[in-house]
Amino acid sequence: AMVADIPVEHPSASKQHAVLQFRHVIKKDEFGEKRGKVGLYVLDLDSANGTFLNGERVEGRRYVEVRGGDVLRWGESSREYVLLVPPKEMV
Q: How far apart are CA 2 and CA 47, in angstroms?
């Protein structure tokens, strides 16, 4: 697996604050059929000052799906990170 660190230069950010991970999940569609999909998830590593998704604190040690247009923030930093995804016709 490849790893990339994103340095967050803020005193409220923990050394290992959170993880962004692509995961393969199987969900049922509207017809009850199982479909596999790869999605991006955030996992807070029980950081002292929290990870925020769209202004809401993410529960520690629980994967939460991140979608296009979602806003992430680490700790008390005012810097926000917006997830941009390519249009479906480009995928």
A: 23
38: β partners? 24
Compute the distance between CA of residue 14 and CA of residue 4 in angstroms, rounded to an integer: 16
pLDDT 10s digits, 5-34: 999 999 999 999 999 999 999 989 999 999
Identify the bridge partners of residue 77 per DSSP, sorted by sequence position. none
> What percent of the residues of the chain are helix, what percent strand, and what percent coil, each to the nearest 5?
5, 40, 55
Say what the pTM is: 0.87
* Contact between residue 6 and residue 15 where contact means Cβ atoms under 8 Å apart: no
Residue 19, CA distances (Å) to 29, 65, 76 in order? 27, 12, 17
